[in-house]
Amino acid sequence: PLDLAVTPMRVLQDPLVGPRCRALFEDGGVDDRLLVMLFLMAERLRPTSLWKPYLDVLPSTFGSSVWFDDEELAEVEGTTLHRATVMQKKSLQALFNDKVKALVEELLHIDEAGSSIEVRFEDFLWANSIFWTRALNIPLPHSYVFPGSLDGQQIRTGEVLGDSDLTTQQETDTTTKNSSCDENSESHNMESIWVEGLVPGIDFCNHNVKALATWEVDSEGNLTGIPASMYLILAQAGKSSVETGTEIYINYGNKGNEELLYLYGFVVDNNPDDYLMVTLTLMFIIQ
């Protein structure tokens, strides 16, 4: 059920932090992506969080380049990956200092149990990585996305994290994790709105270019019996079942290893998408 997904709407409807998050969102103080990251940080740090069972099984560290130490980062010096990583870390640190730290502390102080907890940059780095490695772009009915007083309000995405090609790719990456249109639902019609969020369970699927499954949204509940739900469907023609213990993969898109390392923290042996991103300066293009 997508009611269990961590989306901007779920954050705004949260009984504890929802009212304050709603005010921040309506005032333009945060966009929908940052809203989810703030929520993840606050709920992970809050000892009484209802989301604790889910958050406790998520990774605590990542292999993506923004987590590299100085020695590891030096190994890729001179590459687009190095430039993008340095820019991203600098932007994230500035955003944390200028906005994130104070906002998360404010959310924690709503509950006495979290009032004395220290908020660190590593907490923001974790939430940022959780979002970008696990979020999906989900087609949902307009009425589901914009209930009540939020009806018609535009979704605002994308705190500026730099201008490199790899950072730009990150901004659009959640759209590439493969899905297929559900012909038994209305998730693909013109009234649907694409919302980025974490879907517990499906967000545990790893990447494979020969993915075993894709995901679909059943808006009306015609297949699952649960309106506004998500399910996996086998992607291989003629295959109706899999052996017990088989890992279910989805496809994150056609990405080279440089991009996979930057976005997700892994590389693929003998990657069929064997390419590197090269940045051409304006001076070079003119010449």
From TrEMBL:
Residues 162-187 are annotated as: Disordered. GO terms for molecular function: protein-lysine N-methyltransferase activity. Residues 167-176 have a biased composition (Low complexity). InterPro entries: SET_dom_sf (IPR046341), SETD3_SETD6_MTase (IPR050600). This is Uncharacterized protein.
